[in-house]
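User: Need the bound-state model for 2-hydroxyethylsulfonic acid:
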Amino acid sequence: MNRTVLITGATSGIGQSCALQFAKNNFNLILTGRRLDRLTALKASLEEQYHCAVQILCFDVRHLEETKQAIATIDTTRFPVIDILINNAGLASGMSTIDEGDYDDWNVMIDTNVKGLLHVSREVMPMMKRQGVGHIVNISSTAAKDVYAKGNVYCATKHAVDALSKSMRIDLLPYGIKVTSVNPGACETEFSLVRFKGDEDRANAVYDGFTPLTPSDVADAIYYACTLPTHVCINDLTLTCLTQANAHYTIKKTV
Ligand code: NDP
Ligand code: 8X3
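Assistant: Bound-state model below.
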């Protein structure tokens, strides 16, 4: 029987690349996001290309009731076990010094990156406990390990994800559930477009002068971590492009 992966935030970027990577390796998929048109198109294309089973769940991870209702609709006949949960849905909103931070930006980042991850995890973890098997992959960031100028609250949310991964690993250890934190550096997705609220020039400028990670680079690493022998768990995986040392130090080219 094919294994099942549930990926949050599959409508774009790293989540969408994970969907492709797992589909082409014979996984069945439960894919989530808020943009129904994208989820519908992705499901159709993956089913046609890879003949995998795909269920889409359209909901906002910030809303607990929506999350509970969506997870409750998982078709347990087609997806009797959730082998892997990839908590990927997340975002940065705005970039400013902390004394000038926007309350709405702060709320959307905390509600999505921290509370959203908790909502989905809280619904799925009991299933994994009952199954006696499971793997939770939390998409964190280099911003979980260091902070950078004007990154304050985004970095704080990813530091929180780091703490939650460590906590999950301890609390779920008796049940044989693996927990992996994946911490990418700069990766060219819709991330900067979302952060800068649709300002394409500002978003593109983030990746000027160096070659960032692609979402499929990150999906490859995630897939690797998810397909190791049962007794092996990668706890913490940080990956950056060649010209990035950490969250706040990137050079334009190597000598
Ligand atoms: P994208 O903007 O391309 O993708 C973000 C995904 O998250 C989308 O599918 C979006 O779907 C989903 N999402 C956002 N908010 C919500 C919400 N409230 N409810 C449900 N889904 C939501 O960015 P990335 O692929 O880059 O980001 C994926 C993860 O990777 C994030 O957690 C990000 O913090 C992290 N990351 C990104 C890095 C980068 O440089 N790009 C580096 C390090 C970490 P929809 O809008 O349809 O809801
Ligand atoms: C997302 C990338 O560089 O803003 O985590 O931290 S960055």
